[in-house]
Specification:
Distance between the termini: 30 Å
Largest sheet: 5 strands, antiparallel
GO molecular function, one term: cyclic pyranopterin monophosphate synthase activity
Subunit structure: Homohexamer; trimer of dimers.
Structural class: alpha+beta
EC number: 4.6.1.17
Enzyme class: lyase
Family: Belongs to the MoaC family.
Order of helices and strands: EHHHEEHEE
Shape: elongated
């Protein structure tokens, strides 16, 4: 099989040709967090943010973003995702931890979809809470698990 690259023979950017790869079950998990003032987290937990259910909206936004990753990331393959979950956990005193799990049976992995889900969920929290706290920080977005495909399993340390 040819080496996977995002460059064609002329050196121009191109989508990787995965047509020779076999379909396999692939899973990716990404995590990140958004850090905020303790008062902002309290507003979220108490359901007192004027724009509505912050965690519910962020969950849906993350799922929708995973499904649209190929529209957001240049050269990313469009995939028919089998499963996407986005879990948001308030952590005292000042953060929401976000985890996205994405599954597909296909020729390429879903790391980008999991990372996109976490990032968009965090951005949604920022958007919904920015009137109360413009100092929020999105941190530590990374892949923590990947399985399937030729490269096998990856677990973050």
């Amino acid at each position: 099989m040819p080496r996977l690259t995002h460059f064609d023979a002329a050196g121009a950017a191109a989508m990787v040709d995965v047509s020779a790869k076999a379909d396999t079950d692939r899973t990716a998990i990404a995590r990140g967090r958004i850090v905020m003032a303790p008062e902002t987290l309290a507003l979220i937990r108490q359901g007192q943010v004027g724009k509505g259910d912050v965690l519910g909206v962020a969950r849906i936004a993350g799922i929708m973003a995973a499904k649209r990753t190929a529209d957001l990331i240049p050269l990313c393959h469009p995939l028919a995702l089998a499963k996407v979950t986005v879990d948001l956990t308030p952590v005292e005193p000042d953060a929401v931890e976000i985890e996205a799990l994405v599954k597909v049976t296909g020729q390429t992995g879903v790391e980008m979809e999991a990372l996109t889900a976490v990032s968009v969920a965090a951005l949604t929290i920022y958007d919904m809470c920015k009137a109360a706290d413009r100092g929020m920080r999105i941190e530590s977005v990374r892949v923590v698990h990947k399985s399937g495909g030729k490269s096998g399993t990856y677990e973050a340390s």
